[in-house]
Amino acid sequence: MSKEKCAICSEKIQLRFNPMDEWGIEGSICGNCYSKKINEHYPGEHVRVNKHLD
Q: Whole-model pTM?
């Protein structure tokens, strides 16, 4: 587990995501913030694929 903090919410990152360049965010972000940004940037219904691999 990483001791790094999310560039958006400052919570400890358990699974690190790299923000997309067009988001203009420096540093890594957590899964929750990544999901929120994806929803903001790509509105609409999203179907998660490969869920059986979790």
A: 0.71
